[in-house]
Design a protein that fits this description.
Structural class: alpha/beta
CATH superfamily: Alpha/Beta hydrolase fold, catalytic domain
CATH class: Alpha Beta
Order of helices and strands: EHHEEEHEHEHHEHEH
Number of helices: 8
Number of strands: 8
Length: 251
């Protein structure tokens, strides 16, 4: 929270949510967004979702939104409501970033709550849910209503500024390739491509096929390193926030 908010009208401040990956580096993302928050009059919310919920050692609970009887999208929105109640900033539409496991969460959150997002930055998820009816959740969105009790709102998704960001050297496949018998295996689990670079391209193509504009940043010299992609992410969010304050929408 910027010190300046104590002396200003908080309604002019915006919310940036930085979602951690599997390693739960929430504090590191919070710290790396601090200067951005000061410069652009934002509060940064860095959620921390526990490991081992229900299933001992389980790490991925939040990534696909629905886990047992838990809905991690609703948990995040409850946190946003707490920020709103405490600080009275503008949380109607916020900026959401997530890398790796956080990238899983961010694009699926977009499917569920596009009207709550001004911008979403999807960073290098290991598996992607492609927008389209050809495959069921989580590979695709064919049975989205049956799983979540609501329809996709494609027109609202078109109103969200979307960035996809990945390191140019993010080519390892050992962690993201799923085999029959593995936890999380479903038919088509690897169809989006072999590497995170491939899977980002597939996700981008699926978005664009539905008329959703995408800014695609491939960061030179970077492998699977979330803290090293933050420069283009923060530039993207700065553009969106500046355009909103001027009454326009950045893409």
């Amino acid at each position: 929270m910027p010190e300046t908010i104590r002396d200003e009208d908080p309604s002019g401040y915006r919310l940036v949510v930085a979602m951690h990956g599997t390693g739960r580096t929430a504090a590191a993302y919070r710290d790396r967004f601090a200067a951005f928050a000061e410069a652009h009059r934002c509060i940064v919310l860095a959620p921390l979702f526990p490991v081992g919920l229900i299933e001992p050692g389980e790490l991925s609970n939040y990534k696909r939104i629905l886990f047992h009887d838990m809905r991690f999208d609703r948990l995040l929105l409850d946190m946003v409501d707490e920020v709103d109640a405490k600080y009275r900033i503008d949380t109607a539409r916020f900026c959401l970033f997530g890398f790796s496991g956080g990238g899983h969460f961010t694009h699926r959150f977009l499917y569920l709550h596009p009207r709550r997002l001004a911008a979403v930055s999807i960073g290098a998820p290991g598996q992607v849910t492609l927008l389209g009816d050809d495959h069921d959740w989580w590979v695709g969105t064919g049975n989205f209503r049956q799983v979540f009790g609501q329809d996709l709102d494609i027109p609202a998704m078109r109103d969200v500024a979307v960035q996809m960001v990945v390191g140019a050297e993010d080519t390892e496949t050992w962690e993201i390739t799923v085999h029959p018998g593995d936890k999380g295996w479903v038919e088509g689990a690897n169809m989006a491509g072999a590497t995170r670079l491939d899977r980002m391209r597939s996700l981008k193509a699926a978005f664009e096929a539905h008329g959703i504009a995408v800014r695609h940043d491939v960061v030179p010299g970077v492998a699977h390193e979330g803290l090293k992609v933050l420069a283009p992410v923060q530039t993207f969010f700065a553009d969106v926030i500046s355009a909103e304050r001027k009454g326009a929408v950045a893409r």
